[in-house]
Amino acid sequence: MMLKNVSSERISTMGESIFTTMSKLAFEKNAVNLGQGFPDFDGYAMIFESAYRAMKEGKNQYAPSPGIKSLRDVISEVNSNHYGIAYNPDTEITITAGATEGLYCVMQAFLNTGDEAILFEPYYDAHYADVILAGGIPKFVTLHKPDFSFTQEELEQSITPKTKLIVLNSPHNPTGKVFSQVELEMIAKIAIKHDLLVVSDEVYEFLTFDAVKHVPIAKLEGMKERCITISSTGKTFGSTGWKIGYVCAAKELTDAIRKVHQWTTFAVNTPAQHAMADAFGTLDTYLPDFRALYQSKRDLLFNALKGTEYKPYLPEGSYFMMIDVPKKFDGDVDAAMRLVSEFGVAVIPPSVFYSKSSEGNTLLRLCFAKKDETLIKGAENLIKAINS
Ligand SMILES: Cc1ncc(COP(=O)(O)O)c(C=O)c1O
C-alpha cells in the first residue's frame, strides 16, 4: 500500500540543502571544495586529550539538561570578561547540540503560527527553515552590495503588528559583514520601540579581522532582556563535528528555551562538553593564533582574486568571502554548476539565501576555512575559468 500525503505541509517546500548538493558534486567531479562551510583541517588539539580524559574518568552518562556546570560557568566568565555582559550560569545559559539546535529551540519557544520574523538577506538557511518549522512567516531586509548595508527605513518598513522577532547574524555568513555599532543601535532602537525579541546568531564572534571588533547586541542598553544570543564552540575551537553550541538569554527567555531543549535533545554529548569547558579556560592564549591563522587565509584568498573579474569583497569577520559572478556566466547557479563541473572548484550560489532581492544572482560564496594548498588550488581554478 502507498502512503499518501505522508509528510507535513510545513516541510513541503523543503528540499536538499545547497551545501549537500554542492559537496556531492565536488566529490563526484573531484573538485577543490571552497563551498562547504567548515575547516578541512583539525581545530584546537587540546580538546582531544581533554575529551578522552573525561571519558576515562567515567563522564559518559547524560549531562544535566542545561549543560554541565563547569561549561556554563566558563561561558559566563567569557561573556563577562570579553563583553561585560553578566549571564547567570544556572538560569541564563543552556548548552545545545550546536548552534543549530539552539536556533531551532529558540524559534519553537517564541513563535506562534503566523508570527513574523525579520531576516536580513542573504540569510543563513537554518534561520529561514527554523522560522517555517515553528509556523512563523519570514520577512526580509536586504543587505545591499557593495558593503552589505541596509537603511533604518527598510527595517522599519518590514515591521508589522505581527512581527515577533528580528534575527541578526554578526559576523555574517555568507557576506563576512560585521554589523557596525550604528547598525546595532538602529536595530536595538527598533526592537525596543516595537517590543520585539532579537535572536542574535554570533557563532563567528571570535573571528573578526584587522581592528574590527565584535559587539554583541545584548550589550546595548535595554537589550539584554529582549535578546537571545547563540554561539558555537564548533566555530571557536574549529571542531564543527562536535556540535556543542550554547544559548545565552535572560531567565524568563531561558526558561522557555529550556522547555523545548528538554524535548529536543534533553542533553548533549558529555565528554565533549568537558573538553569545551577546558578549551574556554585557555581562550585568551588561544585566540591570537586562531585569529591570525584565519586572517592569513582570508588575505591569501583575497589577494589571489584581487584585480580579477571576481572583485572579492573583503570580509571583516566569519570565514566566508563573497565574489562577483564573471560576465561569461549566466548568474550564480550557472557559474557554480560550471565551475564545479568544468573548472574543478566548488562554490556556493548565494541566490538560495535571498527571498526578496535578486542581488544573489550576481554573487558567489567562498569559504576560506581551508588548508593553504586548498585555497591556492581553488583560486587557480577560479582564475583559469575566467581566462579560458
Ligand atoms: C551563521 C551560522 N549559524 C549557525 C551555524 C551552525 O552552527 P553549529 O555547527 O554549531 O550547529 C552555522 C554553521 O555554519 C552558521 O554559519
What is the structure about, briefly put?
Helices cover 41% and strands 14% of the residues. The protein contains 13 helices and eleven strands.
Walkthrough of the structure:
The chain is an alpha/beta fold. The protein has 2 domains: 138 residues, Aspartate Aminotransferase, domain 1, CATH 3.90.1150.10; 223 residues, Type I PLP-dependent aspartate aminotransferase-like (Major domain) (Aspartate Aminotransferase, domain 2), CATH 3.40.640.10. It has 13 helices and 11 strands. The strands form 3 sheets. The protein has a 7-stranded mixed sheet, sandwiched between helices. Helix 7 links the parallel strand 5 and strand 6. The longest helix has 23 residues. The model has no long low-confidence stretch (mean pLDDT 96). Bound molecules: pyridoxal-5'-phosphate. Pyridoxal-5'-phosphate binds next to helix 4.
